[in-house]
Each structure stands twice: as structure tokens, then as C-alpha cells.
Automatic annotation (TrEMBL):
Its EC number is 1.8.1.9. One of its GO terms (cellular component) is cytoplasm. It comes from Thermohalobacter berrensis. This is Thioredoxin reductase. It comes from the Bacteria. It catalyses: [thioredoxin]-dithiol + NADP(+) = [thioredoxin]-disulfide + NADPH + H(+). Homodimer. Its cofactor is FAD.
């Protein structure tokens, strides 16, 4: 309702937004959690969450998010499904205009996340979480002693290939050019790693598999020749790790909130943006590690700082 003024409005219901909601609700602040799509963000595509502290009982992305949602609701957090199309953040009372309604709040936490760039090839979407991954830190362990292919040639692709080489028996970097774009120091480590191989001037045309990745088609960009890569018979599957960049979901805040050249929101260590009463948390924020554990930490800090901001700027 446009007449209601919330204490805190949180845009995005991934782990950062949910953690912010839990802390904000627990502080007895009137809290609104807005999500345009499905609750949970990227983590809901993860079959198993093995690196979130305490998630040892076969936790999946969806089950972890479900528990967070229950916790947020227990603390009185109001959840609405709406896509925010316009924001007015400079005034004391912030205004968020959605497709369905308009919302007002004393403080706003932006937790809109980031999306990995996709290859947009047949089979990629269907096999995400079933062999196709965008996060080596999350999924490397599942490919211990298997073969994996890393798609990309920048810093993150080569760094993740090096990380994967600690688990997989063989790592092949597939790059669409004839040389890597990664920093020379990182390249040298990859070239000197006897587990890492390279396929140059090639791109993925299709990913195939029934329930899990079983094969993929590569096309040579110079000759046009297509090659079918199939899983080892004993393995039955292999990993495809795609690292061709991330897209922070921050377009809505362009020219309003300070961002870096890639579109990540700039905050201080208290999650404060350049606008008073506006905070940011999670993958949409400029940071070095994008994981559930850091997203939750960001959300907790943002909510705690929002509470202090409200105490100091609004009289009872």
C-alpha cells in the first residue's frame, strides 16, 4: 500500500535480502521484502550446498532458502512479489515504484544480486546444476577425480581452472580466441599446471545429457569444424564450468547510486552507499567473494546499520 511507510524495504530476496530481512524483522522494524522473480536468487539452482557453515545434512539450495524464508516470516517480515521499475531515494522517505504498487520506506537495502553471463546454447539451462556450473567454489568438490571443462579465458576463468585442478583429474580450458585474456602471472600458473589443457578458437554449440551432462559439441571458430566431446564411459558425466563474466542487476540504480565501471554498487564496510539511508548487500555490491556466506553477512550488516540510521534520523 502506498500509504504504508515501512521502516526498511529490501529489494531482492536472495540470501543477502533474506538475511537482511531476518535481522531487520528481529529488530522489530516494519520490514518489506520485494522480489520480482523466484525467492532465493542463484542459490536455488544449486543441488547441494556443501560450503555454507552448518549445512551438512544434505542441504540443497532450495531447502536452505526455504528455512531462511520461514525464519524471516517468523520475525514478521512482509513479502511481496513485484518488479521495481523506478526509485526515488534522495528524500528522507524513499519511494519504490513497482509494476503492481508503490512502496515507501525510511531505509532501503538493495540486494538485487548478479547473474552469471550465459552461453545461451541448447542444453545449458536444462543441465544447470546437473553438470553445468557457474561457481567452482560451490561445485568443484562434486567433480573430484572427474574431467571438467572451463569455458572462458579471462582472469576468473583461469583462476577457477586452477582451483578446479585441485579436485578434477583433468581440466580443459575452452577459449574462443587463440590466447588467454587473463593476467600474465595467472596464465603462467595455468600453463605450468600439468592437469590443465587448452582448446583454442572454439565455442560451445550445444550441451547434451539425460539428467546429467553427458556430452557437448564444440565448434572451431576458424574452420567451422564441430567436435563432439563425450563423457568417459566409466564416469558417465563431466563438468562444464562457465566463466564469461557476471552481470550485476543494478541497471535500475544507474546515475543514482555510485557504481564501479562494471556496474557493481560501491559501499563502505557498513554497506552504506553514497545516499543516506540506502544500503547494499550481496552479489550486486563491489566485493572480492560472492558466496552465500558473504551475502548473508552483508545482509546482516546492512540491516543493523539501517536500524541505527532510523534511530538517528527519525523521532519516535
Amino acid at each position: 500500500m502506498a500509504d504504508t511507510i515501512y521502516d526498511v524495504a529490501i529489494i531482492g530476496a536472495g540470501p543477502a535480502g533474506l538475511a537482511a530481512g531476518i535481522y531487520s524483522g528481529r529488530a522489530r522494524l516494519k520490514t518489506l521484502l520485494l522480489e520480482k522473480e523466484k525467492t532465493g536468487g542463484q542459490i536455488v539452482t544449486t543441488e547441494e550446498v556443501a560450503n555454507y557453515p552448518g549445512s551438512i545434512e544434505n542441504a540443497t539450495g532450495p531447502s536452505l532458502i526455504a528455512r531462511m524464508v520461514d525464519q524471516a516470516e517468523e520475525f514478521g517480515v512482509e513479502r511481496k512479489s513485484d518488479a521495481i521499475k523506478e526509485v526515488k531515494l534522495e528524500d528522507k522517505i524513499k519511494v519504490l515504484k513497482g509494476e503492481k504498487s508503490e512502496y515507501k520506506a525510511k531505509a532501503v537495502i538493495i540486494a538485487t544480486g548478479a547473474q552469471p553471463r550465459k552461453l545461451n546454447v541448447p542444453g545449458e539451462k536444462e543441465l544447470t546444476g546437473k553438470g553445468v556450473s557457474y561457481c567452482a567454489t560451490c561445485d568443484a568438490d562434486f567433480f573430484t577425480d572427474f574431467e571438467v571443462y572451463v569455458i572462458g579465458g579471462g582472469d576468473s576463468a583461469v583462476e577457477e581452472a586452477l582451483y578446479l585442478s585441485k579436485f578434477a583429474r583433468k581440466v580443459t580450458i575452452v577459449h574462443r580466441r587463440d590466447k588467454l585474456r587473463a593476467a600474465k602471472s595467472i596464465q603462467e600458473k595455468a600453463f605450468n599446471n600439468n592437469k590443465i589443457d587448452f582448446i583454442w578458437n572454439s565455442e560451445v554449440k550445444e550441451i547434451k545429457g539425460d539428467g546429467v551432462v553427458e556430452s557437448m559439441v564444440l565448434r572451431n571458430r576458424e574452420t567451422g569444424e564441430e567436435t563432439l566431446i563425450e563423457a568417459d564411459e566409466e564416469d558417465g558425466t563431466f563438468g562444464i564450468f562457465i566463466f564469461i563474466g557476471y552481470l550485476p542487476q543494478t541497471e535500475l540504480f544507474k546515475d543514482i547510486i555510485d557504481m564501479d565501471e562494471r556496474g557493481y554498487i560501491i559501499t563502505d564496510s557498513d554497506m552504506k552507499t553514497n545516499i543516506s539511508g540506502v544500503f547494499s548487500a550481496g552479489d550486486c555490491r563491489q566485493k572480492s567473494l560472492r558466496q552465500v556466506v558473504t551475502a548473508c553477512a552483508d545482509g546482516a550488516i546492512a540491516a543493523t546499520q539501517a536500524e541505527k540510521y532510523i534511530e538517528n534520523n527519525f523521532e519516535e
